[in-house]
Specification:
Shape: elongated
Number of domains: 2
Radius of gyration: 20 Å
Helix content: 55-70%
Structural class: mainly alpha
Distance between the termini: 47 Å
Largest sheet: 2 strands, antiparallel
Oligomer: single chain
Strand order of the largest sheet: 1-2
Number of strands: 2
Length: 190
């Protein structure tokens, strides 16, 4: 694969909603959607894809993925939870997300839990994850390039991509299975 750095840059791995992105006032649903669209628009696979919709937010609310809103406005904590849900939904089911966030929602409501501190820790780990991913991806591309040299085929670029896709998919499955096991542990503890 040529231009590994350009490829990594196009993924926009460092796009996340930060505490500074969230205004200090509660937002209406349209403003929440606009915030997410503006922050993550470059991460969409297709131009027509939606980052967040009214239906999604309503389903999260009905599914009790976050605590109830006040006067049709979403607080800073709601936005942080929606951001976490946005990250989780690509890997685990809505039902699993509910199990993961249930106790956290209770802590926010009953104990005035500082979600902003947890979210800051989450972003710090995300930064570490992105840096690790960049290193791992470069190494994987290098290994794939070495492996493809065993083939004398005019479609070596295509075959290299097939190997890379297969390897990345395998790793994705390992992470997903690990996440599911952790979700099951949370569920058993409840």
């Amino acid at each position: 694969m040529e231009n590994v750095e350009q490829f990594l840059e196009q993924l926009q791995l460092d796009k996340n909603i930060t505490l500074d992105d969230i205004p200090n006032i509660d937002l209406y649903m349209d403003q929440v959607i606009q915030l997410f669209e503006s922050k993550y628009s470059g991460t969409k696979r297709n131009e027509d894809d939606k980052i967040l919709t009214k239906t999604m937010i309503n389903n999260y609310a009905k599914g009790k993925l976050f605590f109830p809103i006040n006067n049709k406005k979403y607080s800073r904590d709601h936005l942080l939870l929606i951001s976490i849900i946005y990250q989780l939904k690509g890997t685990i089911s809505i039902n699993d997300i509910k199990h993961v966030l249930e106790k956290l929602n209770e802590k926010i409501v009953k104990e005035n839990f500082r979600l902003d501190l947890l979210y800051t820790s989450f972003l710090a780990l995300v930064e570490q994850n992105v840096n690790q991913f960049r290193r791992d991806f470069r190494e994987l591309v290098s290994g794939t390039t070495e492996e493809i040299q065993h083939f004398e085929d005019e479609d070596s670029d295509y075959l290299e991509k097939v190997l890379l896709i297969s390897s990345l998919s395998y790793m994705s499955n390992l992470y997903r299975r690990t996440v599911e096991r952790l979700v099951d542990e949370i569920h058993r503890e409840e």
